[in-house]
C-alpha cells in the first residue's frame, strides 16, 4: 500500500479499499453539513482535555487556531472535501493535522467517531428544532391574522365532506392554530431528549482517560449527558421522534392544503390563493393551479417515508454503533429541509389568501345546515331528541321537494311536522342564529372565537 492510499484507520489493512467500496461507504457528500457542529463539539472536547491535563495548553491553542482557519475555509468554499477521507469528521481532523501538526492528532484522544457523530447530529437537530419552532409560531401568527377578520364570515362546516352545520371561517382556521400549537409543544418536548451529550461514550464502553463529560455538556449547552455509553452511541430514537413530530406537522399542513385546493376549485369558489403560489398550464390557458398546496400534500409523503426509513434503519441493529446509522442523515436532513421550506412558504401563502364570504354563505344556505338547530329548538320545547330528529328529517325532505331552504317554508308548512313550532323559529333557522347559539368554550359563536383568538395572541406573545 502506498502512502497515498493510506486511510486514518488503515494500519491493520494489507490492501487499499476498492474504489467502489470507498464511494459506497463515504458520507462526506451529505454529512459535510454537520461541519459547524463538528467543529463546535471538537473545540469543547479539546477544552475539556486541556482542563483535565490530557493535552497541553499549547495543544489547545493550536487546535483553536487550526479550527478557526478551517471554519473560514468552509465558510468561503475553500475547503477541499475529500471522498478518500470518508466523512466530515475525518476531513476536518486531517486538515487540522495538516495545519497544526501533532495537536491535531491529539484531538481524538478519549473520543471516537461513534460518540462524535452522535453529538454532531444532536447539535444539528437542536439548532433545527429551534428554527422550526419559530417557523411554526410565525405560521400560527399568520393564521390568527386571517382568522380575526372572519369571525362573522359564515361557511358550511362539513362532515363526510357533506354540509353539516354552519361555522365561521375564523373558527375553521383556528382549528389549525390548535393543531400547530400541539406541533410546537411536541417539537419542544422532543428537544429535551435530543439535548443530551453522547461524547465521553467513545467507541462504546467509555474511555480510560480522566475526562469530565459534564464540562463538555455545559460548554455545548446540553441539558445533561447520555447516561449509558452503549446507548449514547447506538440509539437514534431522538431523530426518529423528531421525524414523527415533523410528519405530524406535515400531515396537518397536508390537510389544510387539501382544503385550500377544494376551496379554490370554482365549484366551491370560497377563496383565492395569490398568483405567486400558483402556476398556469402550458396547454390550457384558463388554468390556475394550486401547485404549492398540492406539493405540500405530496411532500408529506416523503416525510412520512423518512419516518419509516429511520424506524426500519434502527429495528434490527444490535448494540452498539453500526455503520447502518450513517444512513440516518439523509432522511433526517431531508425532513428538516422539507418542513422548513414548507412552513416558510405556508405563512406567506396564508397571508395571501383572498376570502369570498358571499360564496361561503351561499354554500351554507344550500345544504340545510341549520337542520340540527331546528331539532334542538324542538328538544328545548320538550320533544325527545330522537323524535325531533325524525320531524326535522321530514321537514328537510319537504323543503328539498320544493327546492328551498327550511327558513323559506311558511310557519303553517313547518307546523305540519311539529305543533311545537312557533314564529320564533325563524331566528333559529338563520345562519347567524345558529352560530350565535353555540356559545361555549370551543364553540363557533363569534364571541367565543374572538376570545379564542385573543388567547392565541397572548400565547404567541409568551415564550413558548
Ligand atoms: N460517518 C459515520 C456515521 O455517519 C461516522 C461514524 C463512523 N464510525 C465508525 N466506526 N465507522 O455514522
TrEMBL record:
GO terms for molecular function: argininosuccinate lyase activity. Pathway: Amino-acid biosynthesis; L-arginine biosynthesis; L-arginine from L-ornithine and carbamoyl phosphate: step 3/3. It is found in: Cytoplasm. The keyword Methyltransferase does not apply. Pfam families: ASL_C2 (PF14698), Lyase_1 (PF00206). It is an enzyme of class 4 (lyase). Its EC number is 4.3.2.1. It catalyses: 2-(N(omega)-L-arginino)succinate = fumarate + L-arginine. Residues 11-305 form the Fumarate lyase N-terminal domain. Keywords: Amino-acid biosynthesis, Arginine biosynthesis, Cytoplasm, Lyase. Residues 368-435 form the Argininosuccinate lyase C-terminal domain. Belongs to the lyase 1 family. Argininosuccinate lyase subfamily. This is Argininosuccinate lyase. It comes from Candidatus Nitrotoga arctica.
